[in-house]
Amino acid sequence: MNYNKEFWDNYTNENEARYNEEFSKYTRDLATSLHCTSILEIGCGTGIDLRLFPDTFQIYGVDLNDNALDIAKGKMPFANFKNANIVDLPFESSSIDFVFTHQLLNYLDDDTLDKGIAEMYRVARKYIMNCEKFEETEKKIDENHKFRNVYKRWLNYNVRIVSNVDMHEDIDPDKSRFTLLKKL
User: What is the largest CA-CA distance in the chain?
Assistant: First the structure.
């Protein structure tokens, strides 16, 4: 996995400006409606997508950027944030009810993405959600990331596709593809 610290430090410095309350509400309400009590965001950054979850949830976030994790810990001291890699998640198998990514998978090389999806599947107990920039045929966006077709990568796993649609722009202005899976 190629990790560009300078790129991610700059991303962290701009992350608070990316806070989208509608997306945070949507994620919280979805996890609540699915009767989930533990949440893991992979690539959580400063924790902006987790901020509306109440402390009645077991909240976990992992990221590789220590600066982002320090901000997340300051904003949500009741949550558990760790420095961890998507290809080696520090959780037991089937231990987290709801595992999700938001605009992370677009930044991973193909090998890391495939290993990361396997890890997400391993740690998920009930549901997995990905919200990523989408193209049917994956192609570069710029030098740092590319469009993804996450749906096709999940077809080799024992999951039921609950939803695979574009997010409404009021919830996610990037109109990411929303893929929700139930682990079987």
Answer: 41
| Cβ neighbours of 43 (radius 10 Å) | 22
Residues near 88 by beta carbon (within 8 Å), at least 6 away in sequence: 119
E-strand spans in the chain? 38-42, 58-63, 80-83, 96-102, 124-132, 159-166, 177-183
Indicate the pTM of the whole model: 0.89
Query: What is the pLDDT at residue 172?
Result: 78
Residue 111, amino acid: D
Report how far residue 161's alpha carbon sits from residue 121's, in angstroms, rounded to the nearest whole number: 13
- List pLDDT tens digits, range 128-171: 999 988 877 887 777 777 888 889 999 999 999 999 998 888 88
Q: What is the 3-state secondary structure of 150-183?
A: HHHHHCCCCEEEEEEEECCCCCCCCCCEEEEEEE
CATH code for the structural domain at 5-183: 3.40.50.150
Domain-wise residue ranges, the chain:
5-183
Q: What are the tens digits of pLDDT across the range 35-73?
A: 999 999 999 999 999 999 999 999 999 999 999 999 999
- Taking the CA atoms of the chain, what radius of gyration do you get in angstroms? 15
Half-sphere exposure of residue 113: CA atoms within 13 angstroms, side-chain side:
21
Q: Which two tokens stand for residue 179?
A: 């893929």
Question: For residue 11, which of 79, 72, 86, 68 has the smallest C-alpha distance?
Answer: 68
